[in-house]
Amino acid sequence: MQPKENPPDGHADVRIIAASPEVARRVAEVLRHCFATTEQRSYPADAAGGTRLQLTVDTTSAAEPARPWLETSRSSGKDGRRK
User: pTM of the predicted model, to two decimals?
Assistant: First the structure.
C-alpha cells in the first residue's frame, strides 16, 4: 500500500514486514534507538500470517548511532547511496 503523500522533508516512512510480531518490534526498536519515530502502526502482513509495522522516522534528529552514517551518506551522493 502506497502512502497518499510523501512524508515531510527530513522524514522517511518505514514499513517492516516480518514473520512474527516480535521480530517486527525488534527491528522497530533498533530504529527508535537511532531516530525519533512516530508511534508504530501494526497490520497483518498477508493471509498466511506475519506482521507489517509502519512508522515514520525523523532523520533530522538522529541519535548518535545514526548520525555519522547519515553525514557520510549525505555527502556521498544525491540518492544517499554510497558510490
Answer: 0.65
